[in-house]
Amino acid sequence: MNNYRHLYERLSQHTDKNNVLVDEPIRKHTYTRLGGTADFYITPSAYEEVQAIIRFANQENVPFTMLGNGSNLIVKDGGIRGIVMNLQQLSSIWREEEKVISQSGARIIDASRFALEEELAGLEFACGIPGSVGGALYMNAGAYGGEIKDALESAVVVTRDGDLLKLTADQLDLSYRTSNIPDNGYIVLEATFALKLGNKEEIKEAMDDLTYKRESKQPLEYPSCGSVFKRPPGFFAGKLIQDSNLQGKKIGGAEVSTKHAGFIVNKNNATASEYISLIEFVQETVKEKFAVQLEREVRIIGEDREENR
Question: Does 297 participate in catalysis according to the annotation?
C-alpha cells in the first residue's frame, strides 16, 4: 500500500467500513480477469455517500476512478492508484407508468428483464449486454440494431464537484459508442427509460432470439472484454480481422477468438500487457493489409507494472 494508507479511517467515515477494501485485486471485478490492485475499492450504498467520497477525493487530491461492471474495460497489471468506486450496491429497478427507472449499479440485462416482466417494450436489444446501467450510458451501449439513446429519457448524475444533476438524454450527447459523460466527469446514479406497453410473449420472443444469436456466435466460455473494436465506416471489424487470418493468433495467454474474430479472449491466465499487445498487433496487421485503422471500443486504464509503487 502506498502513501494513501493514512486515508483509510477518514474514508470509512463516509461509508460503512465493510464497503472500503484495501489493495483489492481488480481482476476479481473485470470480465477479462485482468488487472493489478486498487489502493481503495469502495462500494457506497447511498447517493449521499457517493457525493461525500467524491468531495473527499477532491479535497485530499486523491486520484479517483469509476468502475462499472468491468465488461468493456482492461485494467493494466500495475493496478489503479487512489480510489476506485463501484456502485454495485445501488442496483434497484422500479417502474413508474410506462417508464423503467434503474440505479446505475444494476446490470442493463436486469433492466431489460424487468421491462419484460412489466410488459414494457424498448429494451429488448439490451438483454445480452453484460455491463452495468451506468456503464451502458457511459458508452451508449448497443447491440443488434438498438442502443441506449433509443430508450433513455433522462439520467441523474453526480458532477466532479459532488453535486447532483438531472439531465435529459439529449444533454448527454449520446452517439455511436460514446457520450459526454467521461469528458464532463459525470458519475451516473440513475437512468430513466421511456418504454411502451407491449405483448409479453412478443417481447420474450425477441429477447430469446437475440440471446440465441449472442450465445451461438460469441465466445462466452472464456473471459473477454466483449467486442474489442468499434465498427469502422463501411466495414465490419470482425470480418477484417478474420480476413487478416488472425483468428487463433496468441500472445501469451491472450488469443483472438476462433469463434468470433471481433473478440480477444483470456484463454490461459493472460496478463493485461499480453492482452493489450495482441490488440495492438491486430490493429497493426489490419492497417497494413486493408489500410483501415481499427479504433478500440474497450477502455484501457491503470498503470503498467513497472510504473507501480
Answer: yes
Q: What is the pLDDT of residues 215-229, one digit of tens each?
A: 888 998 999 998 999
Are the C-beta atoms of residues 189 and 229 closer than 8 Å to each other? no
179 is catalytic: no
User: Considering 118, 255, 274, 297, which one is annotated as catalytic?
Assistant: 297
| Topology of the domain comprising 5-86 | 3.30.43
Q: Domain spans of the chain?
A: 5-86, 93-204, 219-305
Question: Is the pLDDT confidence value at 274 over 90?
Answer: yes
Cα separations (Å) of 199 from 143, 152, 196? 21, 21, 10
Phi, psi dihedral angles at 211 (to 5 degrees): -65, -40
Q: What is the pLDDT of residues 164-190, one digit of tens each?
A: 999 999 999 999 999 999 999 999 999
CATH number for region 93-204: 3.30.465.10
pLDDT of amino acid 309: 44
Grid cell for residue 288: 497494413
- Which DSSP category does 307 fall into? G
Annotated catalytic residue: which of 55, 95, 160, 177? 177
Please state which CATH number belongs to domain 219-305. 3.90.78.10
pTM over 0.85: yes
Could you check whether 5-86 and 93-204 share the same CATH topology? no
227 noted as active-site residue: yes
Catalytic residue among 227, 244, 257, 273: 227
Phi, psi for 4 (deg, rounded to 5) = -95, 0
Residues 4-25 have a mean pLDDT of 89
Average pLDDT in the 86-99 region? 97
